[in-house]
Amino acid sequence: MPDLLIASHIIPWAKNEKERLNPQNGLCLSPLYDRCFDKGYIGITPDYKVVLSRELKHNSEKDYFIHHFGQLEDMPISLPDRFLPHPDFLEYHYDTIFRK
Hints:
Helix content is about 30%, strand content about 15%. By secondary structure, the chain is an alpha+beta fold. The mean pLDDT is about 95.
């Protein structure tokens, strides 16, 4: 449901003033996945697939993991018709924020 989605920055707002309003620095996520992305528990590869941190996967037996994360690993994200998330921004997130 679009009403439940948040515009999330790939490179955090405070880290790069130049890219703050760049539509390629954005993802449309639910609040749960937005928070996980911001905290580095999930990432998105430059080829637009979801990766889960080891820390998150350590909880693979728990119900919340099974219901909300278990099937996401290596799944492609839904891409917008224009302003694709920039692969360099996704790589920045993976290299500096994602909890490998």
